[in-house]
Amino acid sequence: MIAFYFQLIDFVVLTTGLGIFFGGLDDLFIDACYWTRRLRQRLGHVPAEPSVRVAQLLAVPQRHLAIMVPAWKEADVIASMARNTLRTLDYQHYVVFLGTYRNDPETTAQADAMVHADPARVVRAHVDRDGPTNKADCLNWIAQAIAAYEERHRIEFAGVVMHDCEDVVHPLELRYFNYRLDTADLIQLPVMSLQLPWNAWVGAAYLDDFSESHQKDLLVRQQLTGIVPGAGVALCYSRRAMKAMAERYQGQPFNSSSLTEDYDFSFRLAALGGMTQVFGGEPVRQEPEPNAFAPPLTATAAAAGQIAPSASSTASPRPALATATRPNAAPQPQAQALPPSNPRPGLLGQMDLWNRPATSTGLLATCEYFPSKFRAAHRQRTRWVLGIAFLGWKQLGWRGDVWVKYMFFRDRKGILTAPLSMVAVFLLANALVVRALGGPERWGIDSAATALHQPWLQMLLVANSALLINRLGQRMWFVSRANGLQHGLLSGPRMIVSTFINFAAVTGAWRQWLRHLASGAPIAWDKTQHVFPTSAALAHHHHPRRRLSDLLIESGAISAKDLEQALSVQRKSGARLRQVLLDQGCVSAEAMADAVAIQDELPRAVRDSQPLPLAVASIDPEVIRNHRLVPIAVDANNILHVAVARRPTTGVTRAIRASSGYQVAYVVACDHEVQAWVDELAPQPSGPEPRS
């Protein structure tokens, strides 16, 4: 029995070693393609990919663009994502379509609040069936809403952009899509992780994967095949592409039988022929044109730390473009020019080289938080493996030329190589245990006869070790390049974390696929729970907190003359400006609350909200009275929703948590509403009775 065990181990060592070797050669080939092209560009044998200047983006006349945001159970993040996108995008002619389901009232209410806050920019697309279905189905409903909007307003969207509810969109993204739509039908921009601490092992495993694939692999794929697999976000389809796919697939451009509709769309679009797909991985720079100065960068982009203005940029503001997308559109913010500053030299820029945002390199990347817990990570990757490897194999087959087939192989090999990686971990542990116990001789086995002592296997292990060192080097380089040296150095140890996540994902995918084949039951959509960054995290991507007066003027709530008069009164009275504006009747309470919500980056309270007794009872009346806040609901996740007139301090949040025992989420209500609720729920205690 012992002899058979060692023979079995020898066989497993051989098959695993060969599998890892051929998988490593596959990765080495992609590395060689990338670095060979870089070398040829350096030697001048092929033209280098030119970096795009901000001036080029600003010079292209703006066309109408639509942003699709599918949502199921996203009430906690959808308003924050939409508000942040509206606040930071340096573009005029766009509309955000938020797709919500009829049986998801919480998300629908948040989407409706955003429509109320900015009806010229936000439309809610109603999914007239119970969710969850899947993302592709929701996108098809949004596509129908876009078509109806075009007919109703007599406009045409030149492109349709995909995003999710956790995305932090680059301010210049729509400028770039508008710039490339003349020559491309599918445009994918890089997707990166938001900055993470060094010990975020699971979330940073995604940071590592996307840093390498979106700086190297997708460039090689575009070069070899002309097909760019969609990443689901930061992805733009031309009007021509959407129309062709809708006509080809009976009005359903997205494949609702796929779990990875973005990936599926790219290959189906390529099969139609005549469609160009590009990956926008080149850096974007703010530099002066020859013999001319580049236009100044708008505040939304440059103040976010994305791209610095040219040293020679003039500081005159650019006039805002008029909006004609919807009747009665609200006035839009005017882009503000920034004072001159030094241009950012080199690809790595002037940001902290130890740990920095990916966008500091000039990448026009959408950033987000990926799952930070092991269970959430392997569930998400299980869906990716099911959609790309199993359903992709079934639905897309192996169509295409040799390079397309090769990329299909790369996408699907993980269903075998991920288990092999875990087997390799087991073999290493087995070898260490056997050695610690005295070696094979302890059981009467000649160690010289085992596979580990055969010269050919030792050569295979040396080759695999060399491939592993190359893999580590490649990963560390691209992670360091995008996110700083700290994450680059840690990306090596994090490959072990990725190995366990991928193994769990592949085994889960195999289990679901075999169950599907045996029973014929459809594969359920296992949606990822999204998280939107806090205000502190967004500080790496957005400008400092904006003044309330600026927000009110930009929204058209007050005029410059109103502000001047209010400031005059404020100087005499010493009262707060917001109170002066309200007392003078310059602004409505609703408009003031809308502006406060934008300034404090909080959702607006749904109209006609009322405090619920359960929520009210959870907080000490003294806390309600002293801090002017009103608990209005406790949701299914045991989060206490509190209405406030302004964002409370961290100390107040701690007091609420200590008093109630709940995590806290704030919404902004009108000042007079909050005060009326406070007076009703926690009135001032009466004084002592006078003595006779």
Note the quaternary state here.
single chain
Judged by helices, strands and strand pairing, the structural class is: alpha/beta
Strand order of the largest sheet: 4-3-2-5-8-6-9
Radius of gyration: 29 Å
Report the major sheet.
Answer: 7 strands, mixed
**Overall number of domains:** 4
Q: Uncertain spans, ≥5 residues at pLDDT below 50? A: 287-352, 540-544
Helix content: 40-55%
CATH topology of the largest domain: Spore Coat Polysaccharide Biosynthesis Protein SpsA, Chain A
CATH homologous superfamily label of the largest domain: Spore Coat Polysaccharide Biosynthesis Protein SpsA, Chain A
Q: Please identify the top-level CATH class of the largest domain.
A: Alpha Beta
Shape verdict: globular
Mean pLDDT: 82
Which second-level CATH architecture of the largest domain applies?
Alpha-Beta Complex
Number of helices: 24
Distance between the termini: 101 Å
**β-strand number:** 14
Sum up the structure in keywords.
single chain, 692 residues, alpha/beta, Spore Coat Polysaccharide Biosynthesis Protein SpsA, Chain A, 4 domains, three-stranded mixed beta sheet, 24 helices, 50% helix
Secondary structure blueprint with pairings:
Blueprint: H1 2-43, E1 52-53, H2 54-59, E2 65-70, H3 78-88, E3 94-101, H4 105-117, E4 122-127, H5 135-153, E5 159-162, H6 173-180, E6 186-188, E7 191-193, H7 201-225, E8 235-238, H8 239-248, H9 261-272, E9 277-279, E10 284-285, H10 299-302, E11 366-368, H11 374-396, H12 402-412, H13 414-436, H14 455-483, H15 485-519, H16 535-538, H17 548-554, H18 560-573, H19 577-583, H20 589-600, H21 613-617, H22 621-627, E12 629-634, E13 639-644, H23 650-660, E14 663-668, H24 671-681
Helix pairs in contact: 1-7, 1-13, 1-14, 3-4, 7-14, 7-15, 9-11, 11-15, 13-15, 14-15
